[in-house]
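SEVERITY: medium
COMPONENT: batch folding queue
REPORTER: lab tech (J.R.)

DESCRIPTION
The queue accepted two submissions in a row. Attaching both inputs and their returned structure tokens so the on-call engineer can compare them side by side.

ATTACHMENT 1
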Amino acid sequence: MHLRILDKYIFREVLLTFLFGICAFSAVFIGSGTLFKIAKYITDYGASLQAVVKIFIFGLPSVIMWTFPMSMLLASLLTFGRLSSSSEITAMKSCGISFGRIAAPAIIMGLIVSLCAIAFNEYVVPWANTAYRNVLYYEIQGNNGMKSQEHIILKDIEKGQIQRLVYARLYDADTQTLQGITLQDFDADGQVRHVENAEYAEWSGNEWTMHNGMLYDIASEEGKSEHTMRFSTQVLPIRANPKQIVREQKDPEELTMKELKAQIAIMKTQYANTNKLEAEYYQRITVPMASLIFALIGVPLGLQPTRNSSSAGFAMSVIIIFFYYALMTMGNALARGGILTPMLAVWLPNIVGLIAGFFLIRRASR
């Protein structure tokens, strides 16, 4: 019964400090970034109060997402630093409670925060980012959606089954053309049965016309082409106009992991570079999992004799966070540059943090 009371006590202390950290770090991010953007939107575009409130609310989830690992580290350092400085850790050990048992509530909470952050990053953040972009483009900037974009993907889906897929390497807003087009038609079994490639397609006001392309009818056996024909012009069977096409496209930050995985697969079939999307995909896991990593690091560091004040714990958390995010930035650069595989490059900060955490815990357990 004594251990259960102790677990609740440590868990409550860590939780309260964690919530304080979310508020503190969120305030820093909002004050140093969001408010400056809002001020710019007001002065440059004359944004209305309603639009400003929407921007502020829809921008919160992405800010809070980044504060989870920071707050977990701060909570671990401050809580165990205070317990150590007030000799409560010494009293627990004198009662025969091991370091692992003392640290367990904080580490378990780090795991819970990581799992909740993954779900938050999957179901809340992409939706909020899409809403943020729509308010910015269509309510504040008055944008008509006519802008150039790379990697245009359009899908016709009926009853959960994909019927047609169109990929364009580029949409050129100046000429209203789609460049490097591939169209695939699927049968009831989800197999590709018809393919059309074209150099470009231009918008004539009511339809898209492809130029300089090839038609392929795919045989059901072994996926071989049974009929091929060249064409100079061909109507592209999509109903969306340029404005609708651009508006349907999403930035990587607006996609869920399932959507990212699907888009990566589509782009790989077109031999497009997917390093950026793959880095974003793996980062949806690595950043939330940093909460667990920081708990493993923060608990043993909080027990150090020099960690005897809140200011020292806060300073230590800032230093660790700086090195972690510097390593994360470097990993992203290595992934997008193709120097390392995206999975290894993006996981690099967590691997280093995990090794450091186990080393510190092992040393503190002695």
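ATTACHMENT 2
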Amino acid sequence: MALSLSGAGARTGDRTPRGGNALLRRKKTRDRLRTLGFLSPWLVGFSVFFGYPLIATVYFSFMHYNQIKEPEFVGLRNWSYVFTQMPLFGPALWNTLWLVVVMVALRVVFGIGIGLLVTKLKSGVGFFRTAFYVPYLAPPVAATVAFVFLLNPATGPVNEVLGAIGIDGPNWFNDPAWSKPSLVMLSLWGIGDLMVIFMAALLDVPKEQYEAAELDGAGPWARFRYVTWPNITPIVMFAVVTGVVQTMQYYTQALVAGKLASGVTIGPGTVIQPGYPDHSTITVPQLVYQLGFQNFNTGAACVLSLVLFAIAMAVTILLMRRKSGLLSAED
């Protein structure tokens, strides 16, 4: 009898861990399903708007596809055409990288400078904050049209003012040497977005650190270097990375400025080659549109898109590395 009871107890003891493990597995399964449920909107959006387009772009880069007939596999022919036979690829890539380096750097510097200026004002902060931010709200096409008018070498008010003080104004958008700097000036005019971001970061710097630095005899530059900069470094990183990604997609302003400055009347059926003057404003996104939607060369357009994606990812990874110096080890 004792052996029977002990055997039953042993069997009961064996069943309890197995039942507990089953309950634990069901709980983990429910937790995973709950997590997937919360992540499902992001997963669907990532798959539909990033994953599938990226895979399709890679697929079509090896195809001859004119958006009418069925795709035909051509191997590396599209890649060879872009890198060895497309005459505008080099200038477009150079212009895009030039804008990334110069435009992003100056926008960050001006954003920090204007943010510091506005935060140090004793009165009229609301007025100046609004005055600097309003240009950012202007639509890109309207802002570009206004800038082309202001910088018109013959009738623009900017050159008239410069002439009144004895300075010969440049040709701006009509001069290959000044066309890209003119686009940079246009981007600096709409610096309001970065100004607001940097103002929030600057106002978040603890005042106690400034007071301690002043007690130690630190001047304005030392306070900025050892107090302000370490506190706003993550925001600088954010501004640089997002600026690089946005500038790699630079399209509207360069295209509109080139078309308006060329003086060609734009009407139905008019096809204007981008990049005026002398391909100085052509960018890789303009080539993507021209190849994909005007020449119906989808394969080459996909190759250019992948080149843009690869460069943007490489620059972003380089900037995100802690060895880049923008972020300290503890950040």
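NOTES FROM REPORTER
Residues 181 and 300 are 29 Å apart (CA to CA).
No errors were logged for either attachment.
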